[in-house]
Structures are given as structure tokens and as C-alpha cells.
Amino acid sequence: MDTVQKKNISVRINGAKQVQQVEPRLLLVHFLRDVLGLTGTHIGCETSICGACTVMVNNTTVKSCTMLAVQADGADVLTIEGLAQGETLHPIQEAFWECHGLQCGFCTSGMILSAHQLLLRNSNPSEDEIRHAIDGNLCRCTGYQHIIDAVQLAAKTMQARRRTSKQKAVSRKR
Ligand code: FES
Ligand code: FES
Questions:
Q1: Residue 136 confidence (pLDDT) above 70
Q2: If you write DSSP's letter for every residue of 32-74 in order, what string do you get?
Q3: Tens digits of per-residue pLDDT, 76-113?
Q4: Ligand 2 pocket mutation, candidates 49, 53, 139, criterion most atoms within 8 A of CB
Q5: How far apart are CA 52 and CA 86, in angstroms?
Q6: How far is the CA of 107 from the centre of ligand 2 (A)?
Q7: How far, in Å, is the centroid of ligand 2 from the Cα of 27?
């Protein structure tokens, strides 16, 4: 007989509300992968070292192996599955593709979400700032230079797109 009392949680995952009953000991990473089937979030060490399980909770990156699913009750969670707009990849995803920012891809979803948080608060980061932002994400294939190139390219693309949409908005007002 199952004696563990489950708790109801309500979490917005990639913009969609999810209401589920979970065991209080269930880690957020297991909730995402095993309950919701969002397997783009990877499990490497389960001891908060590798960053493969990085997701965003309320716009802050979190290693989802260090957080219980019940602690995400009421939160907004973004996983790698929520970054693209339909068939259109996010500029960071495009840049990883362009710059060969991945080899086996195991670290990639976590790297991309760490880069995403960086670019939300700093649209033009230096190489040192990028290295600092991803210092909690380990790449076992050690392709760090290509990853940094990818984040720099994504920053440039995002700046250019922002400029274009501002110009369009100004010309619409004229
Ligand atoms: Fe979470 Fe490694 S699996 S930090
Ligand atoms: Fe293989 Fe980073 S691409 S672990």
C-alpha cells in the first residue's frame, strides 16, 4: 500500500498550467522528466555540480536536481522545450547550431538556459561575463570556446532583432 501522502501542486510549465499530485520528496527534475515527459532537461550528477538539469524558475536559473517539485508550487518554469516558438528556434538555439556549440548535446539544454538568463539581464556580455554565467554548467566534451562563440552570436542577433522591431514600431507611428 502507498503510504506516502501526496500533495497537489499547480505549476506553469512553458506557459501551460499543470496541476498534479506528487510525493513531497519528488525532485523537480524527476517531475519534469518522469511525470511530464519533458526529457530535454537532463540528469548528470544529481548533486548540483554539472548543471545538466538547469531550468528557469520565475526567471532565475535553478538546478532542478536541487529543488523539490512541491517547492515549485505556484511558480513559472521554463524548460528547453519552451524556448522555441513553434517551429522557430530561439536565437540562442540557432546560434548553438551555427557555432557548433555542442558535441554530444548532454549539457546543451542547461547551457542554453544559463545563457538565456544572462542575456535577459545583460544584452551585450563580455567573454568573461559569459564564462562566469556558465560556470555552473559542465561540458564533458569540453567545447567551451564554441559555446562562448554561440552566446556572443546570439547576443548580436537578439540586439539586431530588437533594433529592427524598434525601427518598425517608429515607422508605424509616422
Ligand atoms: Fe543537477 Fe547535475 S544533475 S546539477
Ligand atoms: Fe557533450 Fe557538452 S556537448 S557534454
A1: yes
A2: IIIIS--TTS--S-SSSSS-TTEEEETTEEEETTSSBGGGGTT
A3: 999 999 999 999 999 999 999 999 999 999 999 999 99
A4: 139
A5: 23
A6: 5
A7: 23
If one residue of 102, 137, 145, 146 were mutated to test the ligand 2 pocket, choosing by the most ligand atoms within 8 A of its CB, it would be 102
The CATH number of domain 91-169 is 3.40.718.10: no
Q: Which residues line ligand 1 (CB under 6 A)?
A: 43-46, 48-53, 63, 65
Q: Which amino acid residue places its CA nearest to atom 4 of ligand 1?
A: 48
Q: For the domain bounded by 7-82, which CATH number is listed?
A: 3.10.20.30
Pairing assessment for the beta strands 60-63 and 76-78 based on DSSP bridges: unpaired
* 18/53 Cα distance (integer angstroms): 20
Give per-residue pLDDT as tens, 158-167.
999 999 988 8
Confidence (pTM): 0.94
pLDDT the model gives residue 143:
85
Residue 144: the pLDDT is 95
Residue extents of the structural domains in the chain: 7-82, 91-169
User: Ligand 1, from 39, 49, 109: best to mutate by most atoms within 8 Å of Cβ?
Assistant: 49
